[in-house]
Amino acid sequence: MIRPQTPSPVYLLNEPLFDEKGVQVYLKRDDQIHPYVQGNKWRKLKYNLLEARLQQQNTILTFGGPYSNHIYATAAAARMFHFRSIGIIRGEEPTIKSPTLKFAASQGMELYYMDRVTYRHINEPYSIESLRVQLGDFYYVPEGGTNQYAIEGASEIVSEIDFAFDYITSPVGTSGTLAGIVAGLNGRNFAIGFSSLKGEDTLTTKVNALLLEYTGRSFTNFSINFNYHFDGYAKISSGLVEFIHQFRAKHNIMLEPVYTGKMMYGLYDLIQTDYFKRGDVIVAVHTGGLQGLCGFENHFPGWSSSSFS
Ligand SMILES: *Cc1c(COP(=O)(O)O)cnc(C)c1O
Asked: CA–CA distance from 195 to each of 42, 135, 202, 227, 266 (Å)?
């Protein structure tokens, strides 16, 4: 089986708007790292798997919702590197499995379902300990994959870029990817995260805490933009869907509506409204997540046709 490929390619995007505003926009194609272990999910898993090996753990246990890109990627990566994997899935066992869960099971991931109330406490040490009692020992990867090893992995997005740039942008969920990027910048340039979640004013605090723990210092060269979450996680609008279809038609690059679509929509809007100055070079990170599109078709039948409204 092919292994994840890094450095990921980076392409200049041609767009009349960018010429008009005098900016250059590159897309760092982390979606091309691997067909199953895509994007930032590989970045976040890489050093976790190495650490699991070092600790001589054979089992990886992690958490996620039924459409989670992280569950999907972890199941595939665990299989690839010969780990046993366990996925604790939020909510009751569905009568019809999502495409994500079907895939995870096909990779040998053992799936257990946890009711939403219990699931709220999964980050507590007692939750993890009680799982160890029930399931045996394992290497624990938190929901979304975000921990200190994830930051180390995500920082490599920056070290792979071998040209000068002013800004780097990334979607934000749990914020581990953004924290890794800021760690990689090490005080240079500026990172903009586009939040997929509504009203999460705690996210900036979280990035700061992750960075302080990882680097021992704090950084001011980043911000999180909350203007393009489209009413919250996994919420979409016809304008967003239209944008994604146009982007694909022009560039032959697929985005998804939960993370990368919102980031690119936001980035275009900031360029349009002169947030950047002439001459600025921007690198946008395509964090992958395209597997989630199958789930989207389930939730919003017909989303992929441009007549969605
Ligand atoms: C999980 C995910 C994110 C969010 O990354 P965080 O590190 O949790 O902020 C962004 N984009 C895609 C495509 C994802 O799957």
From this structure: 20, 35, 11, 8, 10
Please answer whether residues 26 and 11 qualify as being in contact, where contact means their C-beta atoms are separated by less than 8 angstroms.
yes
The answer, yes or no, to whether any atom of ligand 1 lies below 6 A from the CB of 153, is no
End-to-end CA distance of the chain: 40
Q: What is the pTM of this model?
A: 0.95
Fold match between 10-36+148-308 and 40-145? yes
CATH of domain 40-145: 3.40.50.1100
Percent of all residues in the chain with a pLDDT value above 70, rounded to a whole number:
95
Please indicate whether residue 39, judged by its CB atom, sits closer than 6 Å to ligand 1.
yes
pLDDT at residue 149, as a whole number? 98
Give the three-class secondary structure for 59.
strand
- Pocket mutation for ligand 1, best pick of 40, 143, 214 (most atoms within 8 Å of C-beta): 40
The domain spans of the chain are: 10-36+148-308, 40-145
CATH fold of 10-36+148-308 reads Rossmann fold (3.40.50)
8 A C-beta contact, residue 218 and residue 208: yes
Cis bond upstream, residue 7 (ω within 30): yes
